[in-house]
Amino acid sequence: ILNVEQSPQSLHVQEGDSTNFTCSFPSSNFYALHWYRWETAKSPEALFVMTLNGDEKKKGRISATLNTKEGYSYLYIKGSQPEDSATYLCASPGKAGTALIFGKGTTLSVSS
Amino acid sequence: DTEVTQTPKHLVMGMTNKKSLKCEQHMGHRAMYWYKQKAKKPPELMFVYSYEKLSINESVPSRFSPECPNSSLLNLHLHALQPEDSALYLCASSQDLGTSLARTYNEQFFGPGTRLTVL
C-alpha cells in the first residue's frame, strides 16, 4: 500500500516569513505528485501536478520541487501572508489511473 | 466555469433513510470522483467514473450507490447508513482522455463537500 507522508503536521509563522514543508512518497513506480491547498470551509484547490524528476513549479509566491529518485517533494511559500493559512495536501497514485493517496496534510497558520 | 458544485451542504439522516448527494460540473471533464473525508484524516477515494462508466470502486459498502446520469452530473445514493459513515463527502472532476495515465497527470477540481451526519 502506498504511503504518503507529510511533515510537519502543523506550522505557525509570522506574516512575511518564508516557510517550507515536505511530502515523502515511495520512489519506486512513481507516476505523479499532486499538491492541493485546502482553506477552511472551501474546496481543495490544485496547486501543482509534478511528474518529472528535478521539476520545479511556481505559482506566485508558492513553488514546489520534486525528487523522484529519493521520493520527496518540497513546497515553499515566500513571504507568507495570512491568506496562505490553509492545509496543504500532497497526493500520489500507487499505479497509473488508480486512486490518489493523500498525505495527512500540513496545516499552516500565518499571523499578521 | 471552473466550479464543481455539491448539494446539499449539510445533511442529517437516520439509519433507515434514503438520501442522495449531488455533484455537478460544466468544465467538460469526463472523470468524476467521490471521496470521503473523516475528521483529521486525508480524503479517501470511494469511486471513479470515466466517461459515465464506473471505473474504480474502492471496496465501498453497497449502502453507497453511485450514479453518473450524464457527463456533468454525479450522484451518490445513500441507504441504511451507519453512524460511522458520518463524514465530509467530496466530489471532484478532472480531464480524462480515456486513459488511466491521463487521470493520473491531470489536476482534480473539488467541490466544497457535503457534511453528512448519520444519527
How would you portray this structure in words?
The complex is a heterodimer of chains A (112) and B (119). Chain A is mostly beta strands and 112 residues long. Helix content of chain A is 0%, strand content 53%. Chain A is built from no helices and eleven strands. In chain A, strands 2, 4, 5, 9, 10 and 11 form a six-stranded mixed β-sheet that branches. In chain A, strands 1-3-8-7-6 form a five-stranded antiparallel β-sheet, with no helix packed on it. Chain B has one helix at residues 100-105, and strands at 4-7, 10-13, 18-25, 31-37, 44-50, 53-57, 64-70, 73-79, 87-94, 109-110, 114-118. The radius of gyration of chain B is 14 Å and the shape is globular. At the A-B interface, β5 and β9 of A face β5, α1 and β10 of B.
Oligomer: heterodimer
Number of helices of chain B: 1
Helix segment count of chain A?
0
Question: What is the helical fraction of chain A, as a range of percent?
Answer: under 10%
Largest interface, counted with CB-CB under 8 A? A-B, 24 and 27 residues
How would a crystallographer describe the biggest sheet of chain B?
7 strands, mixed
What are the segments of chain B in which pLDDT stays under 50 over at least 5 consecutive residues? none
Shape of chain A: globular
Radius of gyration over C-alpha positions of chain A, nearest whole angstrom: 13 Å
Overall shape of chain B: it is globular
| Span between termini of chain B | 36 Å
Kindly report the average pLDDT value of chain B.
Answer: 92
The helix/strand series of chain A, from N terminus to C terminus, equals EEEEEEEEEEE
Average pLDDT over all residues of chain A = 93
Largest sheet of chain A: 6 strands, mixed
Sketch the topology of chain B as an H/E string, one letter per element: EEEEEEEEEHEE
- State the total count of DSSP E strands of chain B: 11
Proportion of residues in β-strands of chain A: over 45%
